Every structure is written in structure tokens, then in C-alpha cells.
Amino acid sequence: MKQGHLQGQSAVITGAASSVGREIARLFVAEGARVGLVDLLAEKLERIADSLRAPDAAVYFFAADVTRYAHVESAVADMLAKLGSVDILVNNSGVASITPFVETSEAVWEHVFAANVTSAFLMSQTVIPHMLRQGSGKIINVGGELGLRGAAWHVAESAAKSALVGLTQGLADEFGDEQIRVNVICPGVVKDKGWLRQAAGYAQKYNVSPEEVEDLLIRQIPLGRLATPEDVARAALFLASEEAAYITGQSITLSGGKIM
């Protein structure tokens, strides 16, 4: 994919303080996009924005809780004022949950759904009217393979990510004739700080080392490694580009060939 593929376009990325969000932002900036970063972590966002800025790169940030409508409304208004438009929305906000089902509290269930689904619902509902006025737009949701096949100890997260797939398909169907494309990326395990915490949890459960947990998982993956934030970012770039102009309503699986 040639450099400058997103030249002249504006992208808003939620969950931008995460490793995946940061990498998506870095790649989008490298491809010429103006970028707005949204997350709760203001200081981290500022550091990321500073690291991405260059004489020819417009990068802004807005600290907001994207599970709350008032925060979303303010963030989108601020991004529109600074970016001029929102051509691409990347809903990357989300949390993992490793809890036995019978121990999953109502508070945990609601938090997982808010972070993974409500955030994408609110951001999309606020941004889509602007995309309708523009006559086009691209929404990229970042979910996970748990949305395609649930797993033990991840019931709340599986249900939430499955709901995100349904949201994606519904929006794609409703707004396709308005030239708004909506897709969801479903990565397997992404090797980042979040995975290190999960591996430690599994290690404790099965009385093995975190390294053994990772080795067992990798042996199930034909490509022989875990996904990286860069893998997810490259998929997001493809879906944001005109090379994906006829792709909408799809769940793009990044499993390294692992059959789920």
C-alpha cells in the first residue's frame, strides 16, 4: 500500500492510549491522515500526540469517557472543530474480562458491555450524522475472536464482542446506500501488556508459567506467533483505504490461521 493512502482524510480513534490504538494512529499519520485521539488517559494521550506530531502531521487529542453520551458529544464536537471532518472512525475502546461465569457480577457485566459495545454505539451514533452530510464515511470497530466464538472464563467479553459484530452488521446494512462502510476487526490474542496480564491469570489458574501458557497457545497457530498491534493497525488501514471500497458488514479475522 503506497504512502499517503489516507492523504487529506480525518480519522478519530478511541482507545487511543492502548498499544493497538497508538499503532493505528501512528500508521494513519504516516499515511497522511489528520488524526484525533480519544481516551480517558489525558497525560498518556498528550505524550502519544506529541510523539506523532511533525511539520506535516496534524494530531489532536481529547480526554473523554466514551461510554457516556455527554463526553462523546463533547469529544466529537472538539474533533470536528479541529479536524474539519470525520472521514474515518475507529472504535477501539474495550476491556477484557477473565472471570468464571458464576462469579461474574452485574457490575462487571455492565462495565464490559459499556466499554466494548456502548462506546461504539455512542461514537457511531454521534459521528454518522456528519458522515451523512459528507456523503460517505468509514467505521472500523475493533473487537476480537471471542465475538465469533465464545470461551470459558470470558463469557461477558464474548457476549459483548458478539454484540459488536451485530452492531457492525446492522450499521453496514442501514447505511450502505449512504456510502458509509462499517466493518469489525476480530484479532486473536494480541501480544501487549494486556496479554501479559491475561497470561499471568491463566498461569495461576493452571499452575504453570506465563511462558508455558503462551507457548501452548502459539502451538495452535499455524503462523507460529501471536498477533501484534501492528497487525491490527495494518488491517485497520486496509479497511480505511479505497482498496476496501466494496467491503462492508464484514468480520475480518486476524487469527494467524488458527481455526476457532
Order of helices and strands: EHEHEHEHEHEHHHE
Level-2 CATH architecture: 3-Layer(aba) Sandwich
CATH superfamily: NAD(P)-binding Rossmann-like Domain
Unreliable stretches, pLDDT < 50, 5 or more residues? none
- Number of extended strands: 7
* Main pleated-sheet profile: 7 strands, parallel
Mean pLDDT: 94
Radius of gyration based on Cα positions:
18 Å
What CATH calls the topology is: Rossmann fold
Principal-axis shape: globular
The CATH class name reads Alpha Beta
User: Between the first and last Cα atoms, what is the distance in angstroms?
Assistant: 29 Å
Query: Structural class per helix/strand content?
Result: alpha/beta
Number of domains: 1
Number of helices: 8
Spatial order of the strands forming the largest sheet = 3-2-1-4-5-6-7
Helix content: 40-55%
Share in β-strands: 5-15%
